[in-house]
Amino acid sequence: MVAYHVIGGMQLSSNSGWYYSSDLLVDLRMPLFTALSGFVFAWRSPSDIGSYRRLIIGKARRLLVPLLTVGTLFVLVQSVTPGTNSTRPIQEFWKLYVYGLGHFWFLQAIFLIFLVVGLVNLSALGRKFSFALATLTITSGIAILVNVPAAWDIFSINRAIELLPFFLLGYISSSYGSMLLPARGAVLVLAGALLAVRAAEVFGVINLPASSSALLSLLLGLTGITAVVAFRKQLCWLPLAWLGHFSFAIFLLHVFGTAPVRILLNTIGFDSEILVFVACMAAGLGLPILFEVTLGRFPWISWALLGQKPYRSPIAKPQITGQIESVPAR
């Protein structure tokens, strides 16, 4: 996601290889974040009204508080800083809270998903594999067919509809993951084939109708994420696991690192695409981590801006267990 925003901010030509590489992953980027949230949700899903209430209060603190604080700061900084990629007037700041602006739409969408799935999970039926699978199938169809008009797309409901199947996939993978193992090789092959079709479209070899492209996006996301979850032990890498501890801070704050560095390099005439990309990536990852390990130690700052408990060090050395350690909306 950080790389996606860096590439978008570089304002390259539409036929740039950077855009091609970014577009190839568009079907996996946010769906994977959402699936990881569903994966972890299954570990402590609510079973009664009391636990559901605690879930919603916790998610409001975790997601909506940063939406109000970091989101507002983002809109204000973007509106007064020259060289940003948005010309949105400050008078439209309210759209952040109603429709979602920038990458903060995800906080709204995932909160709606927690509301709905948590409520359904209160019933015994909601925790059955057959029901979860049927719900995944139905919501996948809805994600393709339903599009709420822009004026009524309040609290990023369209995005919530699009991402709900992936959240359910994560939930199913966590709860019934052993059922995936026998077929994981076939799933990997299918995901590779679908990715090849997407690559053909991205590079202009084929031109799919909008409906076919939407179906391809859904199927590639579902199969690709299933393959990632099924092969997670083989994919586990200690540096990435360490980085995952700071995933939410990176999600929230990366733009405050990438944009200033890009603007500075453009101002001084530094035009090497590779070095601009590397510098912006380093800032987008490094600044949020630095923020969490320093200012994030203060309770009121951590709760107000990150929606979480204060940072404590040293963190335990990650172990290769195959389990997901951290997700953007844990």
Automatic annotation (TrEMBL):
Species per Swiss-Prot/TrEMBL record: Cryobacterium serini
Cross-referenced Pfam families: Acyl_transf_3
Keyword check for Transmembrane: yes
Residues annotated as signal peptide: none
Domain Acyltransferase: 1-291
Keywords: Acyltransferase, Membrane, Transferase, Transmembrane, Transmembrane helix
Residues annotated as transmembrane: 63-81, 101-122, 129-148, 185-206, 212-231, 243-268, 274-295
Record InterPro entries: Acyl_transf_3_dom
The keyword Acyltransferase appears for this protein: yes
This protein's name: Acyltransferase
GO molecular function ontology, one term from the record: acyltransferase activity, transferring groups other than amino-acyl groups
Highest taxon listed in the record's lineage: Bacteria
Coiled coil: none
